[in-house]
Design goal:
There is one protein chain. By secondary structure, this protein is an alpha+beta fold. It has a single domain (5-286), classed as Carbon-nitrogen hydrolase (Nitrilase/N-carbamoyl-D-aminoacid amidohydrolase). The protein has 6 helices and 16 strands. The protein has helices spanning 19-35, 60-64, 74-86, 165-173, 198-213, 261-271, and strands at residues 5-12, 40-42, 89-91, 95-99, 102-110, 116-121, 147-149, 152-156, 178-182, 186-188, 216-220, 223-226, 229-232, 236-238, 244-247, 253-260. The strands form 3 sheets. Strands 1, 2, 3, 4, 5, 6 and 16 form a 7-stranded mixed sheet that branches. A 6-stranded mixed sheet has the order 7-8-9-11-14-15, with helices on one face. Helix 1 (19-35) runs parallel beside helix 3 (74-86).
């Protein structure tokens, strides 16, 4: 295989109320993805639990009742074992992490030997009807991360981060060749999509990140109904010039996609998106304010 080419495996799965059952399913699907040739495998956001932030809470005591773990802990140990047993780089979706008195939505990246290569805590936290994440998660404090792996440089970002071009650009400027977005997004009962098609916008905004930054983008969603939420699946891989390489349907599925990292380097050189930047003109981007 060309050293610049790598096979990605996206695990689109549905979750039930038992974290142990979800963990077993994730392990089986990672094993299947690896058996089918995947070299980097990614799980969905909060893959060990149902999507609990669809319900608001009012106290830290209620937050403590939600299944969570420390890092290191049982969940991170399980992810390490999945990576090692299957010889893959594993982007472990995300976990509900407790760190002292704080709680984070955290993605871990494990190498083929099971070693922890990187950790990222979700930066942008939504708080809308059926997405009450600020009631559960503190804002991430890791900054954006670029993780060096034998298969290329990857940046894990998490769900709501996908709507922010600044996150993708920061990772690309730091050397990322692939962006992975573990995600939990879908349609909520009783909420009209008056703006337009949410799923189409979700995919299109990440297509723009891929093109503007000459990077591969992989989004890994969950699937199925969980109480008042219907997760649309639709996990996909987009190449460094915006072409959809692979896309899942609505149900549980393993998506495989071969991507060429040299393709992104050639696009960046040829189109000059980075060398023609004018950072001295971009000060407003880092200023707080509203429109």
């Amino acid at each position: 295989m060309n050293n610049n080419k790598v096979v990605l495996g996206l695990v689109q799965m549905g979750m039930d109320s038992d974290p142990r059952s979800n963990l077993r399913k994730a392990a089986a699907m990672v094993e299947e993805a690896a058996g089918r040739g995947a070299q980097i495998v990614c799980l969905p956001e909060l893959f060990a639990t149902r999507y609990f932030p669809q319900y608001d809470i009012a106290s830290d005591a209620e937050r403590m009742d939600v299944p969570h773990d420390t890092i290191p802990g049982a969940m991170s140990d399980a992810l390490s074992a999945m990576a090692k047993e299957n010889g893959v780089v594993l982007v472990g979706g995300s976990l509900y992490e407790r760190a002292g008195e704080r709680f984070f939505n955290t993605a871990l990246v494990h190498g083929e030997d099971g070693g922890l290569l990187g950790k990222y805590r979700k930066t942008h936290i939504p708080h809308d009807e059926d997405f009450y994440e600020q009631s559960y998660f503190d804002r991430g404090d890791t900054g954006f991360q670029v993780v060096d792996t034998p298969l290329g440089r990857i940046s894990p970002l998490i769900c709501f981060d996908q709507w922010f071009p600044e996150a993708a650009r920061a990772c690309a400027l730091a050397g990322a060749q692939m962006l992975f977005y573990p995600t939990a997004i879908g349609r909520a009962d009783g909420i009209e999509q008056w703006e337009g098609d949410w799923q189409q916008a979700w995919e299109n905004v990440m297509r723009g990140h891929a093109i503007a930054n000459s990077v591969v983008v992989a989004a890994v969603n969950r699937a199925g109904r969980e109480d008042e939420m219907e997760f649309w699946g639709g996990s996909f891989v987009i190449d460094a010039f915006g072409r959809t390489v692979a896309r899942a349907g609505e149900g549980e599925e393993i998506v495989l996609a071969k991507v060429d990292l040299e393709h992104g380097r050639l696009i960046r050189e040829g189109w000059g998106f980075f060398r023609n930047r004018r950072p001295e003109c971009y000060g407003r981007i880092t200023e707080r304010g509203s429109i």
